[in-house]
Amino acid sequence: MMKCEVIKDLLPLYIDNVCSRESAELVEEHLAACGSCRSEWENMRSELRVPQNTVDMNRRESHLLEAMSAYWSRSKLKSFLKGGVLASLSLGIVISAYFGLTEWNIMRVPADIIEVKDTSQMKDGRIAFHMRLTDGYDLNQISYDMDENGNFYMIPYRPIIKKKPITTFGLFNMYQTKDPFINGVYQNKYGADAKITALYLGTRDENILIWEEGMKLPPASDTVEAELKR
Ligand SMILES: [Zn+2]
Fold it and tell me: Which has the higher per-residue pLDDT, 106 or 177?
C-alpha cells in the first residue's frame, strides 16, 4: 500500500484533474481503502471550492480571488482557507480594503442621496431617466451588476474623498438611458436571448427601481429626445 503522505501530496493535483491517469488510479485505489485520506480528500474538495462560491457573493473580489488562487500554490491557498468560508470572507474583505483605499479609491454612493425623475419611453425604444445626487458632490463612475433573473443594476461610484462638481451638470446630474449598449452588456453575459426585465440604480441590497417590465411609461418629452439624440 502507498504511504498516506504521498497520497496527500497527490490529492490537490487529483482534485484539479491534472495528475496522470496512473496517479489518479493510485489515489482512487488508496482512497477506497484508507478512511483518513478519504476525509482529507473531502476536506480539500470543499475548501478548494470556496473561491468558486465567492463568485456569486461578490464578483469584484472573486476576480482577485481567482487570480490569487492561480498565483498561490494550492497548499498555501489551502492553509489560508483552513478556516473555511469565514477565512475566505475575511480574505475578500482584506482585498477590498486594500484596493478600496489604494488602487480603486472608489466608494458606492448610498441610495438615499440618489434622486430619479422623469422616467420616460423614447421613440427609439430607449428608456430615459434623470439621475441627480442630492448631496452636492460629483460622481465619477457608474458600474454594472446583473443577475440571471433579468435584474440590471447601475451602481454609482465616487472616490473616498468627494469633490464638488465644477459644472452644474455631469454624471452627478444628467439623463441616463437603458439602451442597446446596456442590453448588450447583459446579453454578453447571459446569452443572446436574455432580456433585462428590471433596471435599478444602486446595488442588489440597496437600490431604487427605475423601470420594470410591464411598467407604463410616459413618452419622452421633446427636450429629452433632443438632449439624448444620437
Ligand atoms: Zn491513507
Answer: 177
The whole-model pTM stands at 0.54
Quick check: 155 and 144 in contact, CB under 8 A?
A: yes
Q: Which alpha helices (H) appear in 72-191, and where do they start and end? A: 74-80, 85-98, 180-190
Q: How far is the CA of 20 from the centre of ligand 1 (A)?
A: 19
Per-residue pLDDT tens over the stretch 96-152: 554 444 444 467 888 899 999 999 999 999 999 999 999 888 887 788 899 999 999
Domain boundary among 85, 103, 121: 103
Residue 146 alpha carbon to ligand 1 centre in Å = 45
- Residue 79 confidence (pLDDT): 54
Question: What is the rounded (10 degree) CA torsion for 174, 179, 181, 185?
Answer: 100
Residue 40 C-alpha to ligand 1 middle, in angstroms?
9
33 plus 83 within the same structural domain: yes
Report CA(7)–ligand 1 centroid distance (Å). 7
Number of structural domains found in the chain: 2
Task: Answer with the one of 82, 103, 124 that is the final residue of a domain.
Answer: 103
